[in-house]
Amino acid sequence: MKTVYSPRHLGHSGNMELVAGAIVPAFEMPSRADFILSRLDEVKLGPVIDPTEHDFSTAARVHRQDYLDFLPTVYPRWKAEGRDGTALPFTWPTRGLRGDVLPESIDGALGYYSFDAGIGMVEGSWDAIKSSHDVALTAAGLVQGGERAAYALCRPPGHHAGAAFMGGYCFINNAAVAAQWFLDQGAKRVSILDVDYHHGNGTQEIFYARSDVQVINFHADPMQEYPYFLGHADETGAGEGEGFNLNYPLRWGTSWESWNAALEDGCAKLADYAPDVVVVSLGVDTFEKDPISKFKLTTEDFPKIGARIAKLGLPTLFVQEGGYAVADIGVNAVGVLTGFES
Ligand code: FKS
Ligand code: ZN
User: Fold this and answer.
1) Which residues pair with 318 in a beta bridge?
2) CA distances in angstroms from 62 to 116, 131, 138, listed in the order given
3) Does the Cβ of 196 fall within 6 Å of ligand 1?
4) Cα 147 to the chain's mean position, in Å?
5) In the annotation, is 219 catalytic?
6) Ligand 1 within 6 A of CB of 159
7) Measuring from atom 5 of ligand 1, which residue has the nearest CA?
């Protein structure tokens, strides 16, 4: 399997986030990708190639244009206020406030275009975000070109980013852009299988009223876990999209047996849908030693996920999302890929 990777992710570094009342270094850090890259080399999964540059025309079909225009302006505007460090929002338009008027202030605009403070940006962030988008589309191109599967080593991740908002370390929804691109290339139906520990609320929002993309999520129950405000089982789609969104919320402490039962059910629904291609939002923060998560999957479980996905017998694009047990992330993420190939 080929991997697409860009060192331009490295500019997205030194970020801070709010954890339990303190500002601390963000868990989503550059070394995550380094560990994956060195593990890819160790197991000789296949060639690692550079992305080619892509414009944002496909991204504009899943994101709002004003949001895409806003992203590259964030850090220049932050600096123009005489600031440095991490750009972060702190006010959001919740119930009872106006969510329809974009403030002139950079702090107001950051709140308008986000749902949490997990989206720190620094000088090199925009270039990294752009490269992550290019990585996803380049890997999608490999699958479109006839490869059985490809791996997009994306950083930053994407599945929390919605049509017009960022959140949870995500800015552009790489998996959603790739899915849209497959459709634009002639695919009739695409399934997104999101195995990250956290609910992919952005992906769900983007495709919620559509029947050409089936979105299947296995994740920690939003009653207990971030992102808290989406991801319940009764969210099944709207209008034309009714029945094409599937959520499997699972309680803290979930281990392989019950996680796998959900995967089996989801895979059966996926097979019924009979998509032309599968996009996997690949998070390995379901790992027992993940520092921010509370599932109990082991290193031995990840290849089984890959093997089950391979059994679907469909062209498959893997898009990297979360995973914060940095020393194990390489073995676990690459374990899914080798499991797929075995
Ligand atoms: C406050 C707890 C909230 C945010 C967790 C974000 C998870 C991101 C992810 C992605 F795949 F997008 F990277 N933390 N400290 O793993 O879902
Ligand atoms: Zn996650």
Assistant:
1) 151, 280
2) 20, 18, 17
3) yes
4) 22
5) no
6) yes
7) 168
Atom of ligand 1 nearest to the CA of 281: 11
Q: What is the pLDDT along the chain (342 residues), one digit of tens a residue?
A: 999 999 999 999 999 999 999 999 999 999 999 999 999 999 999 999 999 999 999 999 999 999 999 999 999 999 999 999 999 999 999 999 999 999 999 999 999 999 999 999 999 999 999 999 999 999 999 999 999 999 999 999 999 999 999 999 999 999 999 999 999 999 999 999 999 999 999 999 999 999 999 999 999 999 999 999 999 999 999 999 999 999 999 999 999 999 999 999 999 999 999 999 999 999 999 999 999 999 999 999 999 999 999 999 999 999 999 999 999 999 999 999 999 999
Angle value at C-alpha 194, between 95 and 93, nearest 5 degrees = 15
Cβ–ligand 1 distance for 219 under 6 Å, the answer no
Residue 238: CB atoms within 10 A of its CB come to 12
Q: Which of 277, 325, 320, 286 is nearest to 304 (CA)?
A: 286
Q: Which amino acid is at 195?
A: V
Q: Is the pTM of this model over 0.70?
A: yes
Other CB atoms within 10 A of residue 14 CB: 16
Helix or strand run (H / E) with residue 189: none
Backbone phi, then psi, for 190, in 5-degree steps? -130, 140
Report whether 143 contacts 183 (CB < 8 A): no
